[in-house]
Amino acid sequence: MAFDIEMIKSVYANMASRVDKAREIVGKPLTLSEKILYSHLWEGKPSKAFERGKDYVDFAPDRIACQDATAQMALLQFMQAGKPKVAVPTTVHCDHLIQAKSGATADLKVANTTSAEVFDFLESVSNKYGIGFWKPGAGIIHQVVLENYAFPGGMMIGTDSHTVNAGGLGMVAIGVGGADAVDVMAGMAWELKFPKLIGVKLTGNISGWTSAKDVILKVAGILTVKGGTGAIIEYFGEGAKNLSCTGKGTICNMGAEVGATTSTFGYDDSMERYLRATDRNDVADAANAVKEYLTADTEVYANPEQYFDEIIEINLDELKPHLNGPFTPDLATPVGELGKKARENDWPLQVDWGLIGSCTNSSYEDLSRAASIAKQAVDKKIKPKSDFGINPGSEQIRYTAERDGLLETFENLGATVFTNACGPCIGQWDRSDLKGDEKNTIVHSFNRNFSKRADGNPNTHAFVGSPEMVAAIAISGRLDFDPMNDTLINEDGEEVKLDEPMGIELPPQGFAVEDAGYLEPDEDGSGVEVKVSPTSERLQLLEPFVPITPEQLQGVKLLIKAFGKCTTDHISMAGPWLRFRGHLDNIANNTLIGAVNAFNKKTNFVKNQLTGEYGGVPDTQRAYKAAGIKSIVVGDHNYGEGSSREHAAMQPRHLGVAAVLVKSFARIHETNLKKQGMLGLTFANESDYDLIQEDDTFNFVDVADFAPGKPLTIEVVHADGSKDTIMANHTYNESQIGWFKEGSALNVIKRENAA
């Protein structure tokens, strides 16, 4: 039986009337995305049509999911909201703070010791406020959500950018910062700019070495890392119906890599099969009763160009397996062409590791397809040339895969089975086979491959592929290996060829598990005590941010002008820094240390305008803060791409950064800056980026008149006394300007709750 079945039935009970009303108001057939959006309006029944990409809309999500690294800050904020219990179903999943090193048992034991303080905090605060708690080792948040909580037609937000994975079960599931989640936990509306819509029509059938992963690898190559910004990607067509539910989840998961608000599929037979296989017959039955509302209207998919802002068409019969990378997930290359490209770019051809798992590809079907390749290697006496690491998606998957012999197959190949957790995908990997920063290549089935992402080495060339392709490439040990055409030499000196992978959509004997790792919260948590030691290095109770005044926005110093890609990994690194995610002052010591300084092309080396000396970014900013001086960060396109981590906004805010001025923002990061009471601005003329000099001081001339739709005028004073006046655009509405004037969105919530 499903969690929160009464909530799901309530959503379905309201859906028909709300969608019918929306169709009447909009005056045309609706996409699936529009049906879900209009049926989740904060006001209830729709009363107006919204303009895509322009109107800010208040929504009422059905549930919230948080992973342990982001849940700390989100729940520390919620504790300030003055509420006895969360207003909507919420869960916390402990999957980020477990380092992959020796294997599942040993690594989990170490994590439970080293992060005991954080896990205990999360368990107790969850118990106090009515939040479901998934223990360390229970699984990766997005796979656990797909197995237990996702439902067709629902709306969910989560404090992780890959919350979008639940689109594989027909949800509109969106990654947000913790402050957004706190709004909804506190019973308030959640605001989002009404998204544009990108339709992806899939025809044909995937077969052979091509997988669902290759669909999104191809889409990433088409849209690039920012091509989906501000849009929902809706997949449809006969090809979509031919994909498994977990395959759909994989595609939606990596939609985060093109900047999409989320991705989704219409309800179909594969989703029903998955719901029933995961013991949710009640959800399947309820969904079947309203199934025409859980996909787009017939006219939409028949004439998609009339209903979507952009259309992409992919013939799955012709789609080739891809490996994307290195250093960016949108550099798409068909496998057979990768060798030539690698030689031209001097990418290392030797592959040191093949890593299978992550929230993107850790389902039973994923493991079965990769295991079919691993078994061939054993049977055909092929000795793997690379090391193997496996991260199952959940304890249910691990237990079932062990029962069915899949894990034994990997172990026979010499693979290390890590904990059911994120591990190397987020930099939680104690990789012992390299010294220093030597140039090397790895292949993985993850979603991101930014520089330093997996192992902290800027020279690790990481390539993203399907689990079965990762297995084949790792067995060969060569980046230029094409399993569709190339052969390998086995231990007997024979030339052998790998056969096509064989996958099992759902376990024939059904899923099984002894202890899934879930803890139900107390019905009344009022007596539960949440302890945070004042001397803790891992946790720190929050103090409210103080509003930034117009006076403080005169004489603002340049902290750093970031050059090129500046993701949330550059602004607030993960890996070893994850241990400080609950302690704002300590984690602030990694602020922007990965960003490249445009003036010297170095990282963590900026000029202190007070002394004229160069030093680390956080140290320089702390000097400005001590002197009572606010600062500004200047950046390039798609600033804040990547994770939803609000630390990338809270850390600069804590240290005294008042504004971020860039060519363009990634959606979640722009919202996070607004939530924390900062100015998130874009150049009206992108070429003005080139005017910014190392010793510049900024005066925000008319910030006292900050208003929706009105650009801000900024006077840039150079070291020689000369000045440039630039215009900065923004997307703040009245309520968001209220956040800025109050110091943060949380301050507004506290004031309203106290009233």
UniProtKB/TrEMBL annotation:
Pfam families: Aconitase, Aconitase_C. InterPro entries: Acnase/IPM_dHydase_lsu_aba_1/3, Acoase/IPM_deHydtase_lsu_aba, Aconitase/3IPM_dehydase_swvl, Aconitase/IPM_isomerase, Aconitase_4Fe-4S_BS, Aconitase_4Fe-4S_dom, Aconitase_dom2, Aconitase_mito-like. One of its GO terms (biological process) is tricarboxylic acid cycle. Pathway: Carbohydrate metabolism; tricarboxylic acid cycle; isocitrate from oxaloacetate: step 2/2. Keywords: Iron, Iron-sulfur, Lyase, Metal-binding, Transit peptide, Tricarboxylic acid cycle. Residues 34-477 form the Aconitase/3-isopropylmalate dehydratase large subunit alpha/beta/alpha domain. Its cofactor is [4Fe-4S] cluster. Residues 558-686 form the Aconitase A/isopropylmalate dehydratase small subunit swivel domain. It is an enzyme of class 4 (lyase). GO terms for cellular component: cytosol. The keyword Kinase does not apply. The keyword ATP-binding does not apply. It catalyses: citrate = D-threo-isocitrate. NCBIfam families: aconitase_mito, PRK07229.1. PANTHER family: ACONITATE HYDRATASE B, ACONITATE HYDRATASE, MITOCHONDRIAL. This is Aconitate hydratase A.
